[in-house]
Amino acid sequence: MTAEALTGLVFLPLLAACAVAALPGRLGGGFVLAGLAPLPLCLIVLTGAVVDTGTVSLAIAGFASPLGIEWFVDPLALILLWLNTVIALVVGLYAARDYPPHSARGGRFWALWLLLTSAMNALLLSADLFNLFVTLELVTVAAIGLLVIDGKPAALRAGMRYLVLALLGSLFYLLGVALIYGQAGTLDLYQAGERLGPELLPVTALVLMTVGLLVKSAVFPLHSWLPAAHGNAPGPVSAVLSAMVVKVSIYLIWRLWLWLAADWQPDWALPMLGLLGAGAILYGSVLAFLQVRLKMMVAYSTVAQLGYLMLLFPLFGPLGFTAATYHLLSHGLAKAAMFLAVSNILAVMGTDRLDRLGGADRRLPLDTLTLALAGVSILGLPPSGGFVSKWLMLQAAWAIEGWGWLIVILAGGLLAAAYLFRPLAVLCARPATARPADDVRAPSPAGLRWGGIVALMLALAALVAGLAPAPVLTLLEGGLPPGARP
């Protein structure tokens, strides 16, 4: 059953995307449902197998590496597969309001949405450096297509910047892959790690690949495309960009440094990567506080929160690994909820400028509540998934006497409080100053309630992640990177 489950994760949404694109119309909703609904069942099968055996692998067409391509699932990949599926399904429920599958516009949207879901699943399953490149390019193409789906000038400009920088990142990554293949004679990530050592060419290849992935993941200071892209994309697209698209590139950076180069990484590399994370936390938080638009504030918050994922490197160990992975999970849920809530506010008010949103909580109480609850996880307050991850990070920093990293984590929390309390104070201001624009075509009241409920579901999921972290943490302890194992 595991082979069928692995195949289903990739090919069900891919075939559905082809069907939606080729046969638009009334059957669109059925194709979308057929592509997304079975994915949790596939993951349940894989979860049982990973819990029993620790890892699951599948040689495509029966040809094992290095001649063939193998798919590989360990606890880290499994958790991201679950997050991708939850985001695709739940945010998809929200997107169905604005992009009905039976319409021509909706058909284009859902073909790209399903392609993005399939490509991210394929990336998370891949253990081949070139296959990772191909799937990452599919993720990028689908994400850019979704970003510009409405044809707005600001989104087109942001999409073009994203495309140019993503292509540059791809060239760096591909050059690194070529150097690795020339040295190791294999593209299998794990076999290459066993055959290579800390010589000049492998280290150069690793740095080139990392730079390319840092561009694609928008890690400071290579983040210039992210705020404009997230701030001008449609609400559900902003949610999936922040929750998953930028994170899969960081996931690949983790794979390269903690699995491929586990035994021969340079001593200076991990602290350097950690400094990038620290810079992202501080810079992104300050810029988020200075924004005058609510959606841009949430976008710069993503820049800051990605920095915590880079702190895995200087805090590397069992605590650091579980903390960073849990932060990836909880942040994905919370940030998706925030972008959906902001999208509802923008749809009703016709603007997301903070100086025009005073008292908006009277018109949009559910979305204001969602922002507050998601903010609890972003801040790292109990009882949320963000609290669990940041508490584990603080413990990891304390254990290695990394006082600088500890200060950065605490400072990031205080800065997050500043930039999150500011819009909440405006939304709940008295007397009300919010004035919806006369020409705004807001969704129907039923559509608004539905969108608010979907966003609230994700915010509550981020809180539940803090109330019941034991299953995920136990699973992660069985799949630690080589250098973090006791």
Main attributes of the structure:
single chain; 486 residues; mainly alpha; two-stranded antiparallel ribbon; 19 helices; 2 strands
Describe the SSE topology.
Layout: H1 2-22, H2 28-36, H3 39-53, E1 56-59, E2 70-73, H4 75-98, H5 104-125, H6 129-147, H7 153-184, H8 189-195, H9 200-217, H10 225-232, H11 235-260, H12 269-290, H13 294-310, H14 318-349, H15 365-379, H16 385-399, H17 403-427, H18 445-467, H19 470-477
Antiparallel strand pairs: 1-2
What do these coordinates show?
- The structure is a single chain.
- This protein has two domains: about 1-165 and about 220-250, no CATH class; about 280-485, no CATH class.
- It contains 19 helices and two strands.
- The protein has helices spanning about 1-20, 30-35, 40-55, 75-100, 105-125, 130-145, 155-185, 190-195, 200-215, 225-230, 235-260, 270-290, 295-310, 320-350, 365-380, 385-400, 405-425, 445-465, 470-475; strands at about 55-60, 70-75.
- A two-stranded antiparallel ribbon has the order 1-2.
- The chain is globular.
The unreliable regions are none
What are the secondary-structure elements, in order, as H or E? Answer: HHHEEHHHHHHHHHHHHHHHH
Number of E-state strands: 2
The description of the largest β-sheet is: 2 strands, antiparallel
Biggest sheet: strand arrangement: 1-2
Which range best describes the helical content: under 10%, 10-25%, 25-40%, 40-55%, 55-70% or over 70%? Answer: over 70%
Mean pLDDT: 88
Number of structurally distinct domains: 2
* Shape verdict: globular
Terminal Cα separation, in Å?
32 Å
The proportion of residues in beta strands is under 5%
Roughly how many Å is the radius of gyration? 21 Å
Structural class: mainly alpha
How many H/I helical runs? 19
